[in-house]
Specification:
The protein is an all-alpha fold. It has one domain: Orthogonal Bundle (MetI-like fold), CATH 1.10.3720.10. It contains 11 helices and no strands. Helix 1 packs antiparallel against helix 8 (145-160) and helix 8 packs antiparallel against helix 11. The chain starts with a helix and ends in a 7-residue tail after the last helix.
């Protein structure tokens, strides 16, 4: 059965995934809109940077984030000057790392949804003298809803399944940075296979249910 430390890891993981997903939707929307609409020569480079976490090993991302957010890194110096201390081995550090690591899983579905809208709805809104901001909130967002659903589900699920990045940035501090994936690793290292099975099976079930809901409620998400 699940122990108190297991439940603590589950709670922390769900909290991390929720905060990360909300931040990614806010941060990813303008990035996705720019990528979907721009004709800039920088589009390919920006798209490649956004997609880097898909191909880079999580430990590579974690290492450079650790250096950047450490006491001697540029981000670490900034946070220290603001009286915030350093971010590694804190929940805030986990959030920052998770945002970077899960960025493409949110940006790309939203970008695809924006591109699928086409020009005609935007031109129709313009003929009705709708402002760009009003057009975006009244026309674009409702039409892009399937993409947002896909992005939310994938961003949340991907954050739940993180291991390398969160271990590099957060370490293994109970009730502060120890998420489910790290807790499973601890059980395996201690040869506590029964406890590891409970958590691992829960992760498998969670992943299946999430994808089942995604494909059932949003069949277009498979193409978004």
């Amino acid at each position: 059965m699940l122990s108190d430390t297991d439940w603590s890891a589950i709670r922390l993981t769900l909290e991390l995934a929720s905060v990360t997903t909300l931040l990614l939707l806010v941060i990813g929307t303008p990035i996705a809109w720019w990528l979907a609409r721009t004709r800039s020569a920088w589009k390919g480079a920006v798209g490649a940077v956004v997609a880097l976490p898909i191909v880079l090993p999580p430990t590579v991302i974690g290492f450079y984030l650790l250096v950047a957010m450490g006491p001697e890194g540029p981000v670490g110096r900034l946070t220290q000057s603001l009286g915030l201390g350093v971010l590694p081995f804190t929940f805030a550090g986990l959030v920052v790392a998770s945002v970077f690591y899960s960025l493409p899983f949110v940006v790309q579905p939203i970008q695809n949804a924006f591109e699928a809208i086409g020009e005609r709805p935007l031109e129709a809104a313009a003929t009705l003298r709708a402002s760009p901001l009003d057009t975006f909130f009244s026309v674009v967002l409702p039409l892009a809803r399937p993409g947002y659903l896909t992005a939310s589900v994938l961003g949340f699920a991907h954050t739940v399944g993180e291991f390398g990045v969160v271990l590099m940035i957060g370490g293994n501090i109970p009730d502060k940075t120890r998420v489910v994936s790290v807790q499973i690793y601890d059980h395996v290292e201690a040869l506590e296979y029964a406890q590891a099975h409970w958590l691992a099976a829960g992760m498998v079930a969670f992943s299946f249910v999430v994808l089942l809901l995604l494909y059932t409620l949003n069949p277009t998400g498979r193409r978004a």
